Structure of Arabinogalactan endo-beta-1,4-galactanase:
Amino acid sequence: MGELPVSRRSFLRTTAAGAGALALGALTAGQSAGAAEAESAFHKGADISWVPQMEAHGYYWRNASGVRQDILTILKGYGLSAIRLRTFVNPSSDPVSGHCSISETAAMAVRVRDAGMALSIDYHFSDTWADEGHQPTPAAWARMSYSQLRSAIASYVDSSMNVIKSRGVTPTWVQIGNEINSGICHPVGSVSNPAQMTGLLNAAHDAVKQVFPNAIVMIHLASPQHSSVASFFKAYSSHGGKWDMNGFSSYGSASAAAGLVNDMKSVSNAYGKPYMQVEFGGPVSNPSGTETTLKNFLTALKSSGGQGLLYWEPQSYSPFNGYNMGAWNSTNREPTAIMNGFAAG
């Protein structure tokens, strides 16, 4: 995948350093569809974790006809059936790089459930952004030994899953880590310490299954074309790693879509796992080009047995932050042509 006009990861690193100045402005209650049913459907969806803070700062959305509506209603109108929500361990109050505590995530999860959409919970195992090659340990866990950290992760996942359960919500998928090519909670859980990395992730897996036995536990990696993907799965599998499904981030071009999806398929087939693309995005400044890219990824995923595609923060628009890979027009607050890629896909 070539370099993006604006690197999403560079944006996240910048906001993690202090983004406050930028922020100026199908589950029925309590029941999971189960792994077999979820894997038989193709889910179009989005990560919209910024929505509560956007709303708190006065942001709202209009549909393509210019009518103000709830964002979930608009997304469902484009055929989206799934929502991903991230959660941080002890986040700051920064509206862009903080919030997403488990209580806030659970409140948003109720809205997702009430909208009749499937839910994915995305653990970052960090107080702020965790991504490919950047996996900071939560401050409260920073001085822990491996055994202490394993217990802390098990306790945290158990507690937070029970918060979700107490709200009458059952997730379809649970990601144990975000873009964890290099492991989690560095340095203890680095991929360079594969036994410890696997122990931490298995603790998270087991805690999820204890609360939600039918939840699909997902391993999420970035950049499926990179050698770090095969290296991670080799290390994780050989040390007894447990997981149900693979998730991948890819922000590649329209011409690269088929090849990137083939990379997702190849490594997933090697371990007998279903897969989906859990992050996608493209420049909002080029809506027709990003619409085409979205269509190409959807076509490639469907034709190769992928289970779905989630757009990362499509509802984002300036001046909430400096991210320019959403799919909304900041002038009229309406969706751009990018969203038509979902309707056609």
Summary: Residues 1-7, 13-36 have pLDDT under 50 and may be disordered.
